[in-house]
Write a structure and sequence with these properties.
This protein has about 250 residues and is mainly alpha-helical. It is built from 13 helices and no strands. Belongs to the 4-toluene sulfonate uptake permease (TSUP) (TC 2.A.102) family.
């Protein structure tokens, strides 16, 4: 199987997984490593390709985003600043250091995916409408994580949206996609000037993410979201174990 075919299949599955349950990065990142990219280049190449997914998602929720535009103002600046800061930190992380961090990042993303429903419910119950400087800080740190690694970022964004009182799940998902596109977009812009982007895979990955996201959205009712989420969580734990073992 050629490298481009592997990259396409992985990004298609990741796009569909993101549309249904989340955690698609846990599919494309190891696929790129398997194709021979070092972990840092794999992560950066994946991020440069990934922004097409939330862009398409934001387009699909454009009416809901318009309805909730008043909520965007306190979130735009921390999202852009945090996305840039995360990208800057990643580009300036030595490859060997990032390789050491990979299993911890994958484990964190997997745990985040495992408890995402509880995080959102807790935020809705305890934080709704309690906007303060904490919203800026939480969204900034979320965006830093998004620019640096990003798997599961949308879960934290939904918690941030609860803090400013968004009750409509469709508005929340629309704004989540828009913010995700902005965070990935500004990080990708910075990454484009680095030496770590493997450009030959970018068109293939973007096509796979776009088609997979569309297919996942159209076919989501045919799949059991909980079973797919459980599979991704198990896969994440296996990956983190594999990368932990590879450190020794």
């Amino acid at each position: 199987m050629s490298g481009h075919l592997i990259a396409f299949v992985a990004s298609f599955l990741a796009g569909a997984t993101n549309a249904i349950a989340g955690g698609g990065t846990l599919i494309t990142f190891p696929a790129l490593v398997w194709l021979g990219l070092d972990p840092l280049s794999a992560n950066i190449t994946n991020t440069v390709s990934l922004w097409i997914g939330p862009l398409m998602g934001a387009f699909g929720f454009r009416k809901h985003i318009k309805a909730g535009r008043r909520y965007l103002k306190p979130l735009l600046l921390p999202s852009l600043l945090g996305g840039f800061a995360g990208a800057y930190l990643l580009v300036n992380t030595p490859v060997q250091t990032f390789k050491f961090l990979v299993p911890f990042l994958i484990l964190f993303a997997t745990l985040l995916l495992a408890i995402n429903d509880k995080v959102v419910v807790w935020a809705e119950k305890n934080l709704r409408g309690k906007y303060s400087a904490w919203v800026f800080l939480v969204q900034f740190l979320t965006a830093v994580y998004g620019g640096y690694f990003g798997a599961g970022m949308g879960i934290i964004v939904l918690a941030s949206l609860s803090m400013i009182g968004i009750a409509d799940i469709h508005i929340a998902n629309g704004i989540k996609n828009l913010l995700g596109m902005l965070i990935n977009g500004i990080a990708s812009g910075y990454f484009a000037f680095s030496k770590h982007v493997v450009w030959e895979y970018i068109p293939t990955l973007m096509l796979g993410f776009a088609l997979g996201g569309y297919a996942g959205a159209r076919l989501s009712l045919m799949f059991d979201r909980k079973k797919i989420k459980l599979f991704v969580i198990l896969w994440g734990f296996i990956l983190s174990l594999f990368f932990f073992v590879s450190l020794f």
